[in-house]
Amino acid sequence: MIPIQAAEKAIKEETGLLLKALELHGFKSFPDKTVLRFSDGITAVVGPNGSGKSNISDAIRWVLGEQSSKSLRGAKMEDVIFNGTEQRRPMGYAEVTLTIDNTARLLECDADEVQVTRRCYRSGGSEYRLNGAAVRLEDVRLLFMNTGLGRDGYSIIGQGRIDEIVTSRSQNRREILDEAAGIAKYRYKKDKAENSLRKTQDNLDRLHDILQELEDRVGPLEQQAKKAKQFLEYAGEKKELEIGLWLRTMNESRGVLRELDAKLESVRLQYDGTGTALDECSEEIERIAAAAQALEVQMDDIRRAAGALEEQAAGCDSRVAVLQNDVHHNQENIARIHGEIAAAEEGDTHIEADITARLGEIAARKEAIGEAEQQQLRLTDEMEQLARSSDETSGRMEELSAAASALALQLSESRVKAVTNESSLREITLRLSQLAAGAALRSQQAESAAAELQESEQAWKACTEKAEGLQNTLSGYEYRFQNRSQKLAAAKEALDKQTLDVEEKQRRVRMLEEMERNLDGFQQSVKAVMKQGERGALPGILGPVSRLIRSEAAYALAVETALGAAAQNLVCEREEDAKRGIAYLKETKGGRATFLPLTAVRGSVLSEVPENDPGFVGLACDLVQYDKKYEGIARSLLGRTVVAEDLDYAVSMARRHGYKFRIVTLDGQVINAGGSLTGGSSIKGAGLLSRRAEIERLRKDAAEKMQQLEQAREQFRRMQQDVAAVEAELTGARAELTTAQEDKIRLEGEVRRLREQAEQHRRTAQEAATEIDSLNERAAACRTAMQAAQQETEGLQEKQKATEDELTALTGGRQQLTEQREALSARIAEQKLAAFSAEKEIESLENAIRELRSRQQDAAGHTLLLNRQIADLEKANEAIAEQIAALQQQATDLRARAAASGDSIAALVRQRADGEARQTQLRLQSREKTDERARLGQEAARLEEKTANVKKEVDDLSRRLYEEYELTRMEAEAVAKPIADAPAATRRVTELKNKIRALGSVNVEAIEEFKEVNERYQFMKTQIADVENTKNELLHQISELTVQMREVFLDRFKQINYHYGLVFAELFGGGRGELRLSDPEDILNSGIDMFIQPPGKVILNLEALSGGEKALAATALLFAILKVTPSPFCVLDEVEAALDDVNVDRYAAYLRRMCDRSQFIAITHRRGTMEEADTLYGVTMQERGVSKLLELRASEVEQKLGMKLDGSDATT
């Protein structure tokens, strides 16, 4: 698409858009096809008043999409069609075609020439064509948008409309400026986007409502569907097992029956052939039978006991599962404690390594002390040798030398004491700082432990309260579940009753419909004819009267009585059809029947109808409904019969009218014409019409009952859902209570652990405080000793100086000896100091080792406590394991006992078989007895009874098959699977029943409903995502359009305002014209105000301007717009009509200056404008009401058009 800016630039070029031609046909006063061809520059259209000049500008406005008939100077759009004259007929349509040169492709149409056509019909139809192709009005508007040629553009200024630019509201002026600024298309797109956004938001709100509704349904339906699938799975397996078990029993019973039948037949044969020796064996046979019965009872007891054992074993399995959960919980605690022990052991390993390292340092320090002591001994010997080497000196010198040596040794010891105490003080200070740091750390740990303990105690308390609350909640749920279950059971009972009622009514309807189909109650002859008619053998037979008329139930008996035997009369189309029917009955000897041909039967109605008599109900023919073609039949049979309410009214009515007509009461009593009365039971043929009415009534009743049943079912389903929801809440509450109780036990253990940890922190803090007090005392003692050593050192230094001064005075030659002695004394002091420092370091290391040992013992104590907890938990697990083993063994023993029951049953079966064998033996023996006949008779009776019992059992099973699964025995055998292990299958059936019962109420329809709702839910989510994306795209588009519109409009508005000031001053010969935004804060919606000041005037109100000043000011604005945004062509319809000659000349001259930018079509009366025109068209109306077009020169206007062209002509 060509951008707007590029289009506007192209319009200014020489190859811009050019209006080539305008073709009118049937438009207003141009009935004939009229073509105006335009060239560059100014084309003037002139003509007398009323000649149709302005219709040309109207045609251009109309073809560009004008929809206002008022703007086209008409009352309705059909007014643009030529309406005819005295000589010409009106035309049926108006058509205008605008041809534009599009060589530069400034219009969005890939053609060098663009033809826009609009046609309007008198029927109201309208069509647009673009180069011959049908288009919409919107397409035409979009094509010319932002070219100045749009509906709201500035390219067409209608007659008398120029001053409206000045006098109109500022908002109306805005429409022209929007088109001129080139934002009309932007605004169109923005409005369209905003409308789409509103629709999108409405759609999104609707989709969110639907999605919310589906979300509320999909969750519960999913749960119901899962439960329903589980139910169907259990029910299917239960059905399969039950059918298999029942068929197995029935097949076994079949064998038993065959055996019994054989035995019974044998007994009867023996009974016929034996004597009377049966009494002797009868007692033993009865005893064996009793024993067999006892065995049966015993086997049933064993089976029940085995089932109970299985249930006990299942209970043991449940307890084992609970205990195993306890073991798992204990094992988790053991793993946690092992983690704590591992962490402690890792710390203990570091402590042990530290102790070992310090012990190594102590050994090194002791070795250094030994070396220092050896060095002291050696240096002392050297000192003594040095003293002995001074024997040449005098005794005094020896004394002084000895005294100096002693002072040197004392001074060395004093310095060692000072240094030692200083070192001890530093160690104590270091230890105190370590203890202080440790105390801060322990305090922090203690606070953390206390906070953790408080948090755990609060959590334990909250958990305890939660468990109590959950217990209360659980009680409430249990009560609600019990209450809802009772209500559900009552609703189920009522629903079953309603279901039976509906089924009974439906069964009754089916029975009556079957009777109706089989023509029950009709004569054999009627049945025979109807069958032949249905087969097509007897065409034209329409049916018996009772089937062709209908009656309300209240009148059915009366109508049936009135009809009597005629209710079975056969209605046919023609007499020929009746003949064929009679011939058929005669030929087949099928009886007799009455035929009513529609072509022959013409009924009549009672003329004297006793409408006003009391008890009158109506004529019988008026109380029935029928097809119109059967009206003659109805009137013939019922038109002269009156229906009364009862016999009393009927007698009174008959007496009053002299027994002239027949009267029938609603209860079927008859007063015949002439006075005879017929009554009592129904006559033959009665009930046929009542049966149809009864069918209708039952259908309606059944439909109402079915509706009530559906409502009851829906209520029952809601109750089932409610019970299921309560059951789910109950299950959830139980699970939550179990979790809370487990959390409570866990938190109790955690609280105990944290309390022990807090106690350990307290003991450690107390020991640290004791050590700090001891160290403070030692530090004070060290300071005192250090001060005393310093004072002693100062005194010894003074004595040493005095002695050395005296020795120096005695001899200076012994200086070397003195220096040697002092050096030896310093080395001795240094070795002592080194030994003392090593001892102090050993003491410090031993203290550190003791502290590490203490920490190791504390850690060992905590580890011991944790190990005790582990041992307790493992012991508890062992006890639980013993319980689990005991329960598992108990379950195994119970199942073994249950399995052993099979052996017992087999032994009892063998005993029963032995008894039966004994019975056979006795029967064989009874042949030899004279009384065997009586015994065989009893045996036969017993066998018959047993056979009956077995048959009854088989019948019961067959009945259950049909009642529960709607299967016959043959159908069941076709779908059943063989049962290999009947006891296991029986147990499985019991389990399945329990599982089904545990499921509670089940909505089987929820499976399909969930599938449907879920599909809709997913689809709606996708739809919402798509709509959200569309919404965001629209918001982004609107934002971009708004920014572009503001920028483009503001830029163009400034340019137009600038040129407006220049053009205004040029046209007015001075003065000032300015455009202002009425609301500068809202640029896109602000109106445009005009401020006009002609030369020498002060205008406060635009209405104070003269007509010429308004026209000139508006023309200045038009020229300013064309300077900034040139329109391809501009139609000016007498815009200079209000101007004087001077201003017309100025106007025309300026129009000429603008020709390089736009093409002008000027409809005018003024000579100044005509003289500037490049092409001149004249419009004349030589034929009244019909405009004609002439191409002229300016000098020919007066001659050919009869117009007076003077400067003062300013008519419109």
Task: Give me some keywords for this one.
1212 residues, alpha/beta, six-stranded mixed β-sheet, 24 helices, 24 strands, 68% helix, flat, disordered N terminus, disordered C terminus
Distance between the termini: 43 Å
Class computed from helices, strands and strand pairing: alpha/beta
Number of strand elements? 24
Approximate shape? flat
The helix content, as a percent range, equals 55-70%
Radius of gyration: 63 Å
Beta content comes to 5-15%
Biggest sheet details: 6 strands, antiparallel
Average the pLDDT over all residues and give the rounded result. 77
Low-confidence stretches: 1-15, 1206-1212
Secondary structure tally, helices: 24
Q: Tell me the strand order in the biggest sheet.
A: 2-1-4-5-6-7
Describe this structure in words.
The protein is 68% helix and 9% strand. The chain is flat, with a radius of gyration of 63 Å. The longest helix has 123 residues, at 395-517. The strands form 6 sheets. The chain has a 6-stranded antiparallel β-sheet with strand order 2-1-4-5-6-7. Strands 8-21-22-3-23-24 form a 6-stranded mixed β-sheet. It has a 5-stranded mixed β-sheet with strand order 13-15-16-17-18, sandwiched between helices. With 1212 residues, it is of the alpha/beta class. It has 24 helices and 24 strands. The model is unreliable at 1-15 and 1206-1212 (pLDDT under 50).
